[in-house]
Amino acid sequence: MKHYTFILLLFFMITHFFGKTQELSEGYWKGELKLQENNILSFIFTVDKNQRITIQNAEERILLKESIKENDSLQYYFSSFPNYLIFKINSKKRISGFFVNPDRKINQARLAFNAKYYGDNEPTYLGKNDTLLDAKWEVYFNSNSEDKFPSIGKFKQEKSKLTGTFLTESGDFRFLSGSFKKNKLILFSFDGAHVFLFTATLKNDTLKGEFFSGSHYQTNWIGYKNEAFELENPDSLTYMVKDTFAFNFKTTNDDEYTYPNEALKNKVVIIQILGTWCPNCLDETVFYKELYKEYNHLGLEIIAIAYETPESFDGKVKRINRYIENKEIEYPILVGGNASKKECSEDFHMLNDITSFPTSIFINKEGKVIKIHTGFNGPGTGKIYTDYKKKTKNLIERLLKE
Hints:
Layout: H1 2-21, E1 27-34, E2 40-47, E3 53-57, E4 60-64, E5 66-70, E6 73-77, E7 84-91, E8 94-100, E9 110-119, E10 136-141, E11 149-158, E12 161-168, E13 171-172, E14 176-181, E15 184-190, E16 195-203, E17 206-213, E18 217-225, E19 247-250, E20 256-259, E21 268-274, H2 279-295, E22 300-308, H3 313-327, E23 333-338, H4 341-347, E24 359-363, E25 369-374, H5 383-401
Pfam family, one: Redoxin
Protein name: TlpA family protein disulfide reductase
GO molecular function: oxidoreductase activity
């Protein structure tokens, strides 16, 4: 009898212990993703009482809503992308596993992930620094090559805490956060699609460093303070080379959709070329939801075409429907081809080239293309974003009155 009681007690203790380890400790955690060799991307996230994870990228907050228990692991899914975190709870203060991107090649699809618990105290950046990075920086990625591409670095520094972004001619790198200590810069972003790490050293007012995107891409970059530096106008990169703008794609219900059509006659129309895998496209979609709500009843229509990574039509539809549902999008999204700028350019052969996802075509009531905007600089760019929103609303209001 004593032996039987001991076995029951031991069984209770084991099951009680393992039951507890399946719950994440509430509060702040510091996560790490292993990129190439010894390069580590660090980020901060919180766990609430409902076991929801929220990742912090500067001012941005990314809630991982879906979680699944599978054997001894937990899977947390990003609402906007098909990617997920899968990990085991090793103890109250440690977890380990992988960040998985199912659209990547097999050897690039998984990044080692681990995290340490910090409790109620957010990991902070302490100390002072005599050199301030608050300025406009003329930046070149792949700087040692003829294929170098320009960018603008915009940073905000508080002691040694650093936030900011890089603007390019095809959009921005979204919300970046990190530190600047002893002339060493670290910036990172982890939003479910981007896995970005920037490192650099400041010497004689010049930043020199490296940029890592996951485990599959690495290049160098260089930056100089230059308040006068500007990029090419994003309204000038793509333009009409034929007289007629027209297309034909499938709806998510497998019906034919042709533009132009009678339903859009005497309407102001925005054609949005996007990918549900594209964070800049997501930022633009959030803004277009706002435009649609404000101006649709006055005659604005938005038609989106999504170029997706799954090869099958059904796979593309699944991604698009998930995007529509999660982001509560009211305007239609058609099914484009594969996630390829080349393929997209062939579909829109009346344009010189599609150089970026997203690209937007603005059309007046007479069916005339009046502007084509390449890329999108989102809320991580601050005033640039708010100025563009104001400028676009002014354009829509003018076109609606014509």
